[in-house]
Amino acid sequence: MVRALFQVARLKQPAVIFIDEIDSILTQRSDTEHESSRRLKTEFLIQFDGCATQTEDRILVIGVTNRPQELDEAARRRLVKRIYIPLPDLEGRKQLVKNLLREYSSKLTENDFDSIAKMTDGYSGADMNSLCKEAAYGPIRDVGHMLQTLDAKNVRPMQMKDFVVAHRQVRSSVGKSDVDLYEEWDAKFGCHITSQPMDDDDELETSP
């Protein structure tokens, strides 16, 4: 399966191989793991090394995980650009809500969007998605037993009160201890991108 994935990528290149929850297949190896799991990891690492052996190869491998500390060391070395994406900030949460409500009818004002962003400090993108979905049920609940016969255009738009109610139901799924763990791992293994240009006197440090 892994070999076929990389073969297809080579045939279709330029190609991107995107693996969500990459830790599920590339966890740290142990003496107690099943042989099939070990073979899968070995095959992935072999194919990973082989996809960039030719100068004309144009294959980008992207892995996403929320458990970076569980990645196998050999896999971590090969994933050289290790980028930590923090929780969305105030402006990010505000924009997320606007994007998520793009297909919904709402009467939310700019001040309402600001209020929603402020009351969701510590929420992840998935949390914001769940919050908006829960808030979208507000107008439907008001319809009650008339839902089967009422025309969709007669359902009221979403309002700020729907988010106040939804906020009581949907809480942040990421704790401070989780954030501390991610930041600690990032400080140790992360790739810290800087926008500052290098001076002529700067030298790249390489490890032996």
Index terms:
single chain; 208 residues; mainly alpha; Rossmann fold; Helicase, Ruva Protein, domain 3
Care to give the gist of this entry?
The protein is mainly alpha-helical and 208 residues long.
- Could you state the order of secondary-structure elements as H and E? HEHEHHHHHH
Mean pLDDT: 85
| CATH homology group of the largest domain | P-loop containing nucleotide triphosphate hydrolases
- What is the topology, as strand order, of the major beta sheet? 1-2
Determine and state the CATH class of the largest domain.
Alpha Beta
Strand count, sense and barrel status of the largest sheet are: 2 strands, parallel
- Shape verdict: elongated
Distance between the termini: 36 Å
Looking at CATH, which topology of the largest domain would you report? Rossmann fold
Helix content: 40-55%
- What is the second-level CATH architecture of the largest domain? 3-Layer(aba) Sandwich
Query: How many distinct helices?
Result: 8
Counted up, domains total 2
Q: Report the strand count.
A: 2
Unreliable stretches, pLDDT < 50, 5 or more residues? Answer: 200-208
Q: Structural class given helices, strands, pairing? A: mainly alpha
Computed over alpha carbons, the radius of gyration is: 23 Å
Keywords: ATP-binding, Nucleotide-binding
Family: Belongs to the AAA ATPase family.
Organism: Orchesella cincta
GO molecular function: ATP binding; ATP hydrolysis activity
